[in-house]
Design a protein that fits this description.
heterotrimer; A mainly alpha (about 140); B alpha+beta (about 250); C mainly alpha (about 120); B: alpha+beta; Ubiquitin-like (UB roll); Fumarate Reductase Iron-sulfur Protein, Chain B, domain 2; 2 domains; 7 strands; C: about 120 residues; mainly alpha; 4 helices; about 0% strand; elongated
């Protein structure tokens, strides 16, 4: 359908409301969505933190201890606590939404979404176990 | 809960005022009445000047979508008794220009629906003499959900991205494209890919998910869009890495 | 041939970053951000951590984690700025800051990981 001559694209008397800057406060679903999106900031913070750690380890025992000391400071602890909450929120929302994007067919039948989500969570547990095994214990 | 309820109805009369105002009407509230019954009562008995769209009154035509107490709803499927003794606020569907009272301008939506080429596209049409297309129940199941859309536009009203950027093609249109992309009779996926993926079409979607929440027919447009993003992205990757695959 | 957009590939990188970040960051942030500083668990010795880090596989994984997570942030933050603050008209500046930032971070990560003794 092309724009026929009878169809008006705009009319001065149509009422158009501008979307408010605070549209994301109008519904709780929107607010949850924005918080989920903001979690990406804390993901980026973790990358910075990780790179600071890598540099400290490269520079020797003294720098590493300094890093550990710095990581104990209240401001850094608080930031990391908030970051952890947001990063876990990211992970949970991501795994729960994954089945909506990935529809898998096995032997001609659709794999239930719950299994896709579950396999994501299992992968999460396994990766965390690898991290723990690498870093903990002596 | 008495047997009457107050409806706060949005009025916009461009020839008289330049803003939307609210007018209150008191209507009877039998337990089986829906918001649409209330509006029809207003029009028949209280104020014949009220303008609104409706048709089948049974949730299949998609005409009666409006914003009820802040939520996009089909007024024929929303019971007045659900609102107890509070008042019910009826406004036009969000994110669309308002022509008059509760009537919104849907031209943008109609153009977007057509833009995704919502018909079976074949490289070579199969002549009648060759008989019908055959499709297994599983093959039909793979797109059936997306074919249930009644074009009621509640998803567009719920989508904040569409409200912010009218270049976004929107949930129903993308779900409709998927209905055809996933249909085994169709060979038009590449053609639709060109339309959906090249422009801002679908990439503005950030998976808010409200479109699926408000859909009265459980189409799950958000799921359709995410699946499409994945297939479109993988197709783009393939065409970068293996350009000889194209024809 | 219609003009190709890079958006689908940016989305793919965003998704990959989302997966990697979701799988690895919670546990890493928990140990290095809370458990070690608060003494709930004892951190590895410098010697052990260096031994883990200097391994080429670790370097590769850490590099991928950093770069994919940064591009995940860049894409998501870009859209948050568009939609949250409605400043889409500044899109060139936003794209530069976001993806540019991710590129800079990737280069820094690569450099630091190559520098591990």
């Amino acid at each position: 359908m092309n724009d026929s001559p009878m169809y008006t694209k705009d009319h001065p008397r149509w009422l158009r409301s501008r979307v408010s800057t605070y549209w994301w406060l109008e519904r709780s679903a929107y607010l949850t969505f924005i918080l989920r999106e903001l979690s990406s900031i804390f993901v980026a913070w973790f990358v910075v933190y990780l790179l600071v750690l890598v540099r400290a380890v490269s520079q020797g025992e003294g720098s590493y201890q300094q890093f550990l000391e710095w990581s104990r400071s209240p401001a850094v602890l608080f930031l990391n606590l908030v970051s952890l909450i947001f990063v876990v929120f990211h992970a949970v929302t991501w795994f729960n939404l994954a089945p909506r994007a990935m529809v898998v067919h096995l032997a001609g039948r659709r794999v239930p979404g719950v299994w896709i989500a579950a396999s994501n969570y299992i992968a999460w547990v396994l990766s965390s176990a690898v991290v723990a095994w690498l870093l903990l214990g002596e | 809960m008495g047997d009457r309820i107050k409806l706060q109805v949005a009025r916009y009369r461009p020839e008289a005022e330049s803003e939307m105002i609210f007018q209150e009407y008191e209507v009877p509230c039998p337990k089986e009445w829906v918001v649409l019954d209330g509006l029809n009562y207003i029009k028949d008995h209280l104020d014949g000047t009220l303008s609104y769209r409706w048709s089948c009154r049974m949730g299949i035509c998609g005409s009666c979508g409006m914003t009820v107490n802040g939520e996009p709803k089909l007024t024929c499927a929303t019971f007045l008794s659900d609102y107890g003794s509070g008042s019910v606020r009826v406004e036009p569907l969000r994110n669309f220009p308002v022509i008059r009272d509760l009537v919104v301008e849907i031209g943008d939506f109609m153009r977007k629906l057509t833009a995704v080429r919502p018909w079976i596209i074949r490289k070579q049409d199969k002549p009648l003499s060759e008989g019908e297309y055959r499709q297994t129940p599983q093959e039909m199941d793979s797109y059936k959900q997306f074919s249930m859309c009644i074009n009621c536009m509640l998803c567009y009203a719920a989508c904040p991205i569409y409200g912010l950027d009218s270049k976004f093609i929107g949930p129903a249109a993308i779900a409709l494209a998927q209905r055809y992309n996933l249909d085994t009779r169709d060979e038009g996926a590449r053609e639709r890919f060109g339309i959906l993926s090249e422009h801002e079409g679908i990439w503005g979607c950030t998976f808010v998910g409200e479109c699926t929440q408000v859909c009265p027919k459980h189409v799950d447009p958000a799921g359709a869009i995410q699946r499409y993003k994945l297939s479109a992205a993988l197709e783009t990757l393939r065409s970068f890495l293996m350009p000889w695959g194209e024809r | 041939m219609p003009k190709r957009s890079i958006e689908p590939l940016l989305w793919l990188v965003f998704s990959a970053g989302g997966v990697v970040a979701a799988l690895l960051i919670p546990s890493l942030l928990f140990v290095f951000g809370l458990a070690f500083p608060l003494g709930w668990l004892s951190p590895p010795s410098h010697e052990r951590l260096l031994g883990i880090l200097e391994h080429p596989l670790t370097r590769a994984v850490v590099f991928l984690l950093c770069t994919l997570s940064l591009f995940h942030w860049a894409h998501r933050f870009r859209y948050t700025l568009y939609d949250g603050l409605q400043i889409k008209h500044l899109n060139e500046l936003i794209n530069l800051l976001c993806y540019g930032g991710a590129i800079v971070g990737t280069v820094v990560a690569g450099y630091l990981l190559l520098q591990v003794p």
